[in-house]
Design goal:
Elements: E1 2-7, H1 16-25, E2 29-34, H2 44-51, H3 67-74, E3 77-83, H4 85-92, H5 99-106, E4 111-115, H6 119-123, H7 125-136, E5 140-141, E6 145-148, E7 154-158, H8 162-173, E8 183-188, E9 193-194, E10 200-201, H9 208-219, E11 223-228, E12 240-243, H10 247-257, E13 263-266, E14 273-275, E15 296-298, H11 302-308, E16 316-323, H12 331-342, E17 346-351, E18 362-369, E19 374-381, H13 382-402
Parallel strand pairs: 1-2, 1-3, 3-4, 4-5, 8-11, 8-13, 11-12, 13-16, 16-17
Antiparallel strand pairs: 6-7, 9-10, 14-15, 17-18, 18-19
């Protein structure tokens, strides 16, 4: 695959070397197009050594090759990392006064933009509007990470890690619009079941797997609504998002949206139990007295209810089972039993605990059908896992269309 990596003039330009290396080591033909200002951070010799290709900046170089048109036309993927606020503005307004912006303007391949800038720049209404414009035109703009920026500043605006940029960019380039026209509802995150005004029952779910499923489904053409429970990672822009806190909140939103959905993916880690009563005042610790026992009641089984009462013909229901093995069976044993009880079309089983599943960037899952039989298994970052799950969803949807 022919990949253009555009590097613009930010301090994070040095990280692009790792991105370039990941692409070249995967066997792709990579050419770096730096902006003139980026050469103040990383010189052209570095890019030429890493790629074996010239690293030019001007539309007036290689004029006989019409490089300012040819490069963008022939590229299979363009990744701009880091993308400064200035460059985001430039391509949003269609300017083409250097080789990189001209290549973007003529490109018909997927374009991925990884912004890196100070928090105030990222949040400025001009940048917000420019990013919105790019997304409306089909350019994939990643959310910046939060963390240490230049100097003592810290906050959102940090360049995402190169391996995350590479994974997202390659996933975008290798998929088709096989979910186009489908309305997909996805739940993500954990729930907080209140004990009193300051305490709750919860879990360690970050919501990352569900969020990556939503991003992947959107890239594949679906009309996505994300029901976000309690999440600890940034929510993506460009999606219809509903916010929920408790299991009953999620049940309300799912029941509201399910009648219009072709696919419902229950990726949220919903609490199985909630306190029978939420106390109006904080539970006090009284010297010499043990606290009163907390009585729990079951939360509704939203997944089983969806599968038993499908809202439209051919509706696809996908559940998740976060399991731990115990003396009664393995993770997969418990997953099979749950698949038979829930009767969802697919059940994604993953082991959690001790650094597995919750709060990690990677996941290992086994995908079961309604009979509890394995139909797939995958390991990788959560975006790659999302696409593997959606491959099975897309196949079910295609089979439904045939029937």
């Amino acid at each position: 695959m022919r990949i253009i990596v555009g590097v613009t003039g930010g301090i994070a330009a040095y990280k692009a070397a790792h991105l370039v290396r990941s692409f070249t080591e995967a066997g792709h033909d990579v050419r770096v197009i730096p902006t003139q200002s980026s050469l103040n951070f990383v010189g052209a010799a570095t890019w030429e050594a890493l790629t074996g290709q010239p690293a030019t900046t001007s539309v007036f170089e290689d004029v006989d090759q019409v490089a300012h048109v040819k490069l963008g036309q022939e590229a299979d993927l363009i990744v701009i990392a880091p993308a400064t606020a200035d460059f985001v503005s430039k391509i949003a307004t269609g300017r083409a006064d250097d080789l990189l912006s001209a290549s973007v303007l003529v490109a018909t391949c997927p374009v991925v933009v990884a912004p890196a800038m100070h928090t105030e720049m990222w949040r400025n209404p001009a940048t917000v509007a420019n990013v919105s414009t790019l997304r409306e035109r089909g350019i994939h703009v990643l959310e910046p990470a939060s963390g240490r920026l230049t100097g003592k500043d810290s906050g959102p605006g940090r360049l995402p890690e190169p391996e995350d940029i590479a994974a997202f960019a390659l996933s975008v380039s290798q998929i088709n619009q096989d979910l186009a026209g489908l309305k997909v509802v996805i739940t993500a995150g954990g729930t907080h079941e209140p004990l009193d005004p300051v305490r709750f029952l919860g879990n360690n779910s970050s919501g990352l797997q569900g969020i990556k499923l939503a991003e992947a489904a959107k890239v594949r053409g679906a009309d996505v609504t994300l029901i976000a429970g309690v999440v600890t990672v940034p929510l993506p822009h460009g999606l219809d998002v509903r916010h929920a806190t408790t299991a009953l909140d999620i049940e309300r939103d799912v029941n509201d949206l399910a009648p219009g959905a072709d696919v419902v993916i229950m990726a949220a880690a919903i609490a199985d139990f909630r306190p029978v009563k939420r106390l109006d005042a904080k539970i006090k610790k009284v010297q010499g007295q043990e606290p009163e026992p907390i009585r729990l009641t079951k939360n509704p089984d939203i997944l089983a209810g969806l599968a038993a009462n499908r809202q439209r013909p051919g509706q696809i229901i996908v559940g998740f089972a976060a399991e731990t093995g115990d003396e009664t069976g393995t993770v997969l044993d418990h997953g099979r039993a749950k698949a038979l009880r829930k009767k969802a079309d697919l059940l994604v089983v993953n082991e959690v605990g001790d650094g597995l599943g919750f709060g990690t960037p990677h996941n290992t899952v086994t995908i079961l059908d309604a009979a509890g039989e394995p139909v797939g298994e995958t390991t990788g970052d959560k975006l790659a896992v999302s696409h593997a799950i959606l491959d099975h969803v897309a196949k079910l949807a295609a089979d439904n269309r045939k029937n």
